[in-house]
Every structure is written in structure tokens, then in C-alpha cells.
Amino acid sequence: MFSGLSAFPLTPMNEDGIDTVAYAALVRRLADAGVDSIGALGSSGSYAYLSREERAQTARIAVENAGTVPVMIGIGALRTRDVLLLAEDAQKAGASAVLLAPVSYNKLSAEEVYSHFEAVTRNLSIPLCVYDNPGTTNFQFSDELHGRIAQLPNVRSIKIPGMPLDPQEAKARVDRLRALIPAHVSIGVSGDWFGAIGLNAGCEAWYSAWGGLFPRTLLEITRAAQRGDEQEASQLMERLRPLWDLVARQGGSLRVMAAAAELLGLAKSPCLPLPLKAIHGPDRAHLAELIESLELA
Amino acid sequence: MFSGLSAFPLTPMNEDGIDTVAYAALVRRLADAGVDSIGALGSSGSYAYLSREERAQTARIAVENAGTVPVMIGIGALRTRDVLLLAEDAQKAGASAVLLAPVSYNKLSAEEVYSHFEAVTRNLSIPLCVYDNPGTTNFQFSDELHGRIAQLPNVRSIKIPGMPLDPQEAKARVDRLRALIPAHVSIGVSGDWFGAIGLNAGCEAWYSAWGGLFPRTLLEITRAAQRGDEQEASQLMERLRPLWDLVARQGGSLRVMAAAAELLGLAKSPCLPLPLKAIHGPDRAHLAELIESLELA
């Protein structure tokens, strides 16, 4: 399950709770589109903002609505104690895998991160994907640490945050990491604008926020890269450049995706947990135009 | 209560829960030493790692054991929803004030942070101290934003993270912020090695982690600065240089303070929530020597 397009849906919510109906529909939409896996409760799914009970409920809804598509559940939390409980909940919900980021308040040391993954993987009976996201965790993995963690039991994939934009340099970066991790551990690219670059550079998976909202568009890119048509994948990616530019200007996908889901009627407004706010004003109007002109709907 | 030495004790804990006996004793120790206020559940108190129930319990113990010393309670959380509940709990526990940092997973915008503080201050009936700590929140306050938030109801102090080491530049920095905030809002310096510099530069308060462990030593520095003896304050501060150097090498106070509390028998080992670990090995041995040579015990 750690190859191809892994789609990370939003978890629509407001101050009163999760919109379980909208969430179930988002998940079914991904299964219908034929994504290779679903990443429930990733960063796009606002996992860090939910209570343990809300996360267990969300995990159950994701598994129930994913059909035959395997579901990976985010179990990141500040404390090892809480991650162990969330791992239990995810397994009870029927998850096929879990995703773990070294979430921090106090910046973590490499030794602390290693011990954290060691404690969690020791208690798992399903595969784990290492979630490397320095923008939200404030922790920078070294390749050496990735190599050590990748050898722990149950580790099957690494979700990396991005890479150089130059194709040669991107390939060199993936090769460097590949040389340090076992063959049974896949590498997946995240940061959506790196999608085609990452797949073309040898990443087996694309862990994609926008795949959670526009699965057909991103599957087309994924399939082109998977059959070795690097140029087609790059061109399809380049067509979406105005969207990636908007995301870059907003400092990330979440607030833009939330607005897109609201514009498309896939989530009620607001759908993010305060203090987070979907983009509004001229940026939102521009997004509405892009959804139309890029035929994303 | 937003002047002088505000001491931020550890909340000793392990994977099973909070060591309430050790915590109560730490708080009583601060009250006996005569600190000007107690910052319970600050970063030193690992607030972000505790459940709502644990935080309410800790707040109650702090207030019960602080005697006549006013207690400020940290109410930071990722969601506005949760901060509002934590504010209620703190007020029910008898807190004299609350401390709020814009905790983040997704990096926050200035607009989001302002709305967050607006929602929380609107619902408060006790004073609030704005907690500016970019190292843990990944949010950088501008002075302009501090100025806007300082005008919200109930805001009475700003805890700033540090300042230039040069006395002239430090004074200029405090003056710049002072010019943008109302007179009834005090400025307090944090980052312990800036203590004397900040007080000498015109900060009214020292929000101090190490004040939570070595209150008498840090009160001596505070009192010297408060009576205008800048040189005495600086010299007393300089005497502790080997401690500040150790803290800087460790990337912050928490893991060093935890080891010091363990070494002094004020907390059982371990006393931090995993994956955090107190310093160990040669660093810990060096710390033990410093506690003796600097007569900190």
C-alpha cells in the first residue's frame, strides 16, 4: 500500500465537532476515484487538533467508507504515552497502517525521536510510515536517523517533505536516502508541488494533500509517472502551476484546500478548527477561478 | 502581579501521571522563598503535554500551595475551543491570571493569532499575559501585533523571549515595544540568561524557568535590578554563566532543570514526559558540579 497515490482528505469540522457526513463522502469519493491508499488524519486531516475520541471516530469512518482501499491513520502526538493509545485506537478501527510524525512543543533531539519511534513500533501489529514534516514538527530528520528508524520493526515507508526542483538533483537526493534504508521501506514524496518531480526521481509513493480533494487529476499524473512517462507527468503537473503558486503564497495547502472544499460544496464553511481559517477575500476568488479554469471540479 | 520575579516550576511527571506530592512541595518552596508570582503550567511545567484533567488538577495544586503568592496558569493549546475550556478550568482553580502562547501545528498567521487572543480575552474575568515564545510556537510576533493584542480587554503583560545582549540595544528594544503598548501592560523578560539584561533595560518582570527551581538565587538578582543596582544584578548574573552556557548548549532549560530537580531530590527520575529526556551522561555530571560550585542548592 506504500506506492502510487496516497490521498489525504480534510476532516471537515467546526467548533462543535466533526462533520461526519461530509467526511464520509470525501472518503468515498477517493475510493471511487481509485486512489491507491487513503491517509486519514494526516496534516490535511487536522489530526493534531482533535481529541482522542474524535480521532478514533474519524478513523472508524475512514475505514468504513474506504471500500477496499487501504487506510493509513495519523497517530502523531506530543507524548509517547498518547501515541501508544492512538496506535491502539487506529488498529481497533481497522487501519491498514499508521503514520507517525515527531510532533513537538519542545524541539526534539535525534535520540528522543529515535526512542519515540522505537517505543511505538515495538507495540504495533500493522505497518508504520515515518512522517518527516519539519514545517509542522520543527524537527529536521538527518538521512542517518532515517536509516536507523527504517530498520525498526513494522517501518514500511518514509514520507519526505520535498526535494530539489532540478530532476538530476532530485534523483541524487532520493538515491542518497535509498542507500541508507532497507529495500522493503518505500520512499514517498509529499509537498504536492514536488509530486511529479519526486515520482520521476524514484519515489514509490506520492503522499498528497490535494489528492484528497482532486483524486482524478492527481491520479493521472501518478499513473503517467508510474508507466515511466516522465514528460507527461511533468506537463500535467506544470498545468497546475497556478494552484501550486497560490499554495506557496499561502504557506501551505491546508487553508487553500479547505476553501476549495467549501467552494465545491464538499464541506460546510467554516471547516477548519479555529484559530485556523480558510483563505478568504481576493485569494478565495482567485481559487474559485482556478478550480474552473483548470477543470479541477 | 506582573512585576518582579515570576517563577515557573517544573511539573514532575512520568508515564503514569503527575507526581502531585513533589509538585506541591516545589510550589511551597517558591512561596516560602517569597517570589512575586508563580507561573504554573508554563513551558517549564510541560503544559502542552498534559490532558485537560491533568492541567486542572495541577492548577488546583499550584493555587492551594502558593499561599498568598498569586498564581498564573498556562492555558495554551492548538485550538481556540480548547483554550476557552482551559481558561474556565484555570479560573475555577483560583488562578490570579492566565498565560497564553499561540501554540501551533500549522504555522499561524498574524490575523489568526489576533482572533485567537480576541476570542479568549473576551471570555476572561482575570488578567492575561501574552506568551511570546517563537522557539516552541513557531510564531514570530511583530511589535505591531503585540501593540494590537495589548489593547484587548484583560491583557496585562507580555512575556518576551529575549533581547540583544548589549545593554543599550536591549533598552532600545524594550523602549520600542513599550511605545506601542498601553501603560497598564507590563513587559517581562524570559530566556533566563537575559534576566538581568532585561530588568536593567526596563522590563518590569522576569518570567523565569530557573526561578522555579532556584528562587533565592534569582530573587537576589531581581531585587538588585529593582533597586537600580544594575552592576550588582549583572555581576550576580555573570556568576551563573557556566549554568547559562550549559543551558545554551542543550538548546533550552527544560531538560537541564529536570536533571537538576532530580539531582536535588526535588523530583523522582524520570520527571519529564517521554519522548523528552532530562540530560544525562557527562552533561549531567557537569551540572551536578555546577550546582555545588555555584552554591545553587
Automatic annotation (TrEMBL), chains A, B:
Keywords: Lyase
UniProt protein name: Dihydrodipicolinate synthase family protein
SUPFAM superfamilies in the cross-refs: Aldolase
Cited InterPro entries: Aldolase_TIM (IPR013785), DapA-like (IPR002220)
One Pfam family hit: DHDPS
Family of this protein: Belongs to the DapA family.
